[in-house]
Specification:
Blueprint: H1 2-13, H2 23-39, H3 44-56, H4 68-82, H5 87-98, H6 109-118, H7 127-140, H8 147-160, H9 166-171, H10 173-191
Amino acid sequence: MLRRKVLEILNSQLPKELSYHSIDHTLNVLKTCNNYIKREKIGRHEAKLLRLGALLHDIGFIESNDNHEITGGHIAQKLMKSYGFLKKDIEIVVGLILVTRIPQTPKNQLEKIICDCDLDYLGRSDFYTISNQLFMELKSMAVINSKREWNKIQIKFLEAHNYHTKFALKNRQPRKETRIAELKELVGKVEK
């Protein structure tokens, strides 16, 4: 079964310093996609493709941090082909992987869902916990040096980010706006 194979690959080959882009993140995105599948009454076949997109969306990290979505698309193509998937289904899943690249520009319902699922935490109560995991990951890669610098980057990112589904706009956007205000206050206090 492809799901089991993907989880084995992620579990054994993802670099251990990836505290955010870990198997836990992948499973969280999959769980959130499953909630959307129920909420939006996604058909069985499309649901299968969306779940595969969720499972595979960060698999490119096993080879590279740079352009991991493109790398992940190639890996997904090979894997799905070896499991006998149709070309059109492979193209849909590769599209789901590629659309998670920032800035996200989804063009259909499944792409909107995976984008919102990938960044669902931006408008959830566990924002700071997950955000800290990303900070630690970027710090371990020497991409970022301080919490202050990180908070400034987060403010820019949150302000530029858009949710795409009705559910996320209603249920995640307000909390995201609160996070922006909190981070601005935090950065303002540090600068005084």
